[in-house]
carbonyl reductase (NADPH)
Amino acid sequence: MSSVQVAVVTGSNKGIGLAIVRALCRQFPGDVYLTSRDPGRGQAAVAQLQQEGLRPLFHQLDIDDLQSIRALRDFLKEKYGGLNVLVNNAGIAFKVHDTTPFAVQAEVTLKTNFFGTRNVCTELLPLMKPYGRVVNVSSMVSSSALGGCSQELQQKFRSDTITEDELVKLMTKFVEDTKRSVHEKEGWPNTAYGVSKIGVTVLSRIQARLLNEQRKGDHILLNACCPGWVRTDMAGPKATKSPDEGAETPVYLALLPCSADAPHGQFVSNKTVRPW
Ligand code: NAP
């Protein structure tokens, strides 16, 4: 088993994920895994970074596929005996003018952004080594979507005692409510992407709390963040940041030094903790 440190970035064949891998290849003192659900797109991205003189490694990972997540888990366990840095970056968003029925958008978006990210955490967080760093890429949209929730939902999502099961039930309820066209009556905002990212931010707060309870002394830091508005296939060419600029906050959180005990369980943008 290798004693080399290891970092994994989900959804990193393009966009912000690729830029995070680029920065980690330059700054992280260990192996950096570019992952992609499609091996062809992943290998092409590896080749692109190799052209820049960098040496990322590749592993297939589709966060919608539990078998794929478990294959990566087993590989990391076997080869490295754990994991030092995990960046949950993979995500999807329907375009504003997409005519796919809202209930379908809700189901598909939540499946990847919330349930897929949660499955990766369930399988990989137990592998995190002492002083490990976990970064869940959420969005400022999670904050604005929270503001669009009913007072009752806001209270639940801001709660310091909400459990993962309760959060999963709420995310499932959102999808069910959209199918019955009652989501607005039930206090939800009209944004599937926003609700999925509320899920990512709240999940991060819960996971950080669990780390405090169950692994105190291991100094693992876990945070959610917003990369900013970034020029990628998701956000389009008018966005204000380049992918490399969008990678700055996630990479800052991924490389928090061993001496740091904060931020932890926070929502961070532009390297600054934001109120939730
Ligand atoms: P992007 O260019 O569309 O890249 C998304 C990446 O996620 C792609 O590599 C995509 O792979 C991958 N992905 C999607 N579903 C996946 C799955 N089931 N399994 C594994 N990988 C999957 O988007 P981006 O702008 O870089 O976004 C990266 C993250 O930042 C997302 O979580 C997004 O919500 C968040 N974010 C972006 C912005 C922004 O302004 N761009 C703002 C706030 C937050 P394929 O190539 O196979 O589709």
Notes: The mean pLDDT is 98. The radius of gyration is 18 Å. The CA atoms of residues 10 and 90 lie 5 Å apart. The beta strands are 5-9, 30-36, 57-60, 83-88, 128-137, 221-226, 267-269, 272-274.
